[in-house]
Structures are given as C-alpha cells and as structure tokens.
Write a structure and sequence with these properties.
Layout (H helix, E strand, L loop, with lengths): L11 H11 L13 H20 L5 H8 L3
Length: about 70
C-alpha cells in the first residue's frame, strides 16, 4: 500500500488545503456512511469502480479501493 505522501489519497488537512486553494469541495471517503448523502456517494463510487475492478488484476488499486469502501 502507498502512503499518502506517495499519492494514496489526501489527509483531512490536505483536502482542506486543496479546497481552499482551488475553491473545490473534496470530501472524505465514506466507507461507513452516516448520512443519506454519504450513502449516495458510496453507492455512486461502488457503481463506478465495479467494472474497473472486475477488469483489473489481482492486487490492483481499484480492487483495494473497493475493499476499503466495503463495496
């Protein structure tokens, strides 16, 4: 697995900085959703990633992401 410093994602502080600099609205991952909005994000993520993960090799980043999000 890659650390955040090597491109594995953003920390809360990193998302905050990116959002501030670009005016974006990146959100934290939602593998354990607490709201309906987060559940919708999870469902959307799982639906987008499923075909990619099916085509990818064992141990790929797509499959690892699916496991972390509990899809």
């Amino acid at each position: 697995k890659l650390p955040v410093s090597k491109g594995a994602g953003l920390t809360a502080k990193g998302r905050e900085k990116y959002n501030r600099e670009t005016g974006s609205n990146l959100k934290a991952p939602a593998p354990n959703p607490k709201t309906k909005a987060d559940q919708g994000r999870k469902d959307s993520f799982c639906a987008r990633m499923a075909p990619i993960a099916e085509k990818s090799e064992k141990g790929s980043r797509a499959k690892a992401a699916m496991q972390r999000w509990k899809c």
